[in-house]
Specification:
This protein has 89 residues and is of the alpha+beta class. 39% of the residues lie in helices and 21% in strands. The protein is built from three helices and four strands, in the order βαββααβ. A hairpin with a 7-residue loop joins strand 2 and strand 3.
């Protein structure tokens, strides 16, 4: 997630709430948010789910939808790029 300067302050509380509540879900094993050392407006999420169904369930939760809707409301002030991986070991 990358925000334009001045927008991160709006999004960070929703990101943190989403992460905190996500790890309480049965299928979520880990949810960490890190910010770039070079750019305070750039974030990476590291999320680990039991399986694809757990991720799909997560995307229906109130906390995810609140974060996602806020991101949509911020429009061009936020960009998002998701990469999905399957665990090998």
């Amino acid at each position: 997630v990358k925000t334009k300067p001045g927008c991160a302050e709006t999004l960070i509380p929703a990101m943190q709430e989403n992460a905190a509540k996500s790890v309480l879900e049965d299928g979520c094993f880990q949810f960490d948010i890190s910010t770039s050392e070079d750019d305070e407006n750039e974030f990476i999420f590291y999320e680990v789910y039991k399986n694809k169904d757990a991720l799909a369930s997560h995307r229906k939760t109130q906390h995810f939808l609140a974060y996602f809707n806020l991101m949509q409301d911020l429009g061009d002030n936020v960009s998002r790029n998701a990469q999905l991986y399957e665990q090998m070991s």
